[in-house]
Amino acid sequence: MKAVSVIPGKANSVHLRDVPKPKVSDSPNGRGVLVRVLRVGVDGTDKEINAAEYGAAPAGDDYLTIGHESFGIVEEVGANVAELAKGDYVVATVRRPGRSLYDTIGTYDMTTDDVYYERGINLRHGYLTEYYVDEPEYIVKVPQGLKHVGVLLEPTSVIEKGIVQAYEIQRRLRVWHPKRAAVLGAGTIGLLATFALRLRGLEVCAFGRTQPPYLNSDLLGQIGGCYHSTKNTGLAECAKEHGPYDLIFEATGYSPLVFEAMNVLGKNGVLVLSSVTGGGRSIEVPADRINLGFVLGNKVVVGTVNANREYFEIGVKDLSQGELQYPGWLSKLLTHPVKSLENYQEMMNLLTTAKGAIKVYVEVAQMEKEQREINVRASVASVSS
Ligand code: BGC
Ligand code: ZN
Prior knowledge:
single chain, 385 residues, Quinone Oxidoreductase, Chain A, domain 1, Rossmann fold, seven-stranded mixed beta sheet, 19 strands, 23% strand, binds beta-D-glucopyranose, binds zinc ion
């Protein structure tokens, strides 16, 4: 079967290759689930992997099949799988457990191991291919009514983890009624973070560099968020008018902003950092002032990466609520479909250069066609039995 892969360590090595089709029996104890991939979203991580700045091949292979934002349909399940059935729409989690205590209790996103395993990113092949097999523990069911936006679940799980962690931390305050939030970055993650915070009833200001109006600022307006460009007015100035913020979600990929965010965080506030910054940038910061604000204001800053199953499940609920509260909004994030795996070069080009792209994703197979074929096979099977 076809797979979009890279040679880790070799820049611009993205290519299409033939790989063996996985079998349900690849997972032990009759616990395999074979999934036909329908759509796969791509993001900055895939861009970095193709630039050879990130990512590693599984042991024994010199290539890595990329793609970690999956959406698919179950085609076959092993004898001991009761959780999922043929025809279910599903999304797979990204990380797989290592050895730490956190991994053993299902919170592999909190691993303390130095090595982490992530499908499509690090040491495990991903989903930009025709089929994958995995165990039901790592596969989350998506309701039929969400299939048109199911490919957004993985990025949603990442912001859900950050937000849930923030609320969990704030239980220290006994009573926390956050009113105002700032989201730094207005790309896919910034938009989804704003969306999830709006669903929780917060006033949200999102910040980006682009001068409004543009698609993303319009989209923010449609869910009752506001948008400010930091091109002319810095974060500190904006915050004077709209802040201070009870919660700040940082998702720009530009680490110097973290220290500005620390300065505009309100008393008892929480700052969530989610940007994976692989570079080596350093800056000078007003250390005394930031420290004093944190000490006298009892503030918290927390880093967040990845998401375990729990956050995918919360994501399903938020996407469902979102479709009711803001009908049609999520679909507008799916700006750049790519027709098939063969068009992997177009996919990379869109990812690196497309203006106005929110989510670039590959249509690996036709949703309706796959569903129909599975139904036909199921009815043939029931007639013949
Ligand atoms: C993925 C996460 C992953 C992180 C670090 C992100 O793009 O969405 O699942 O943990 O990269 O590799
Ligand atoms: Zn990602």
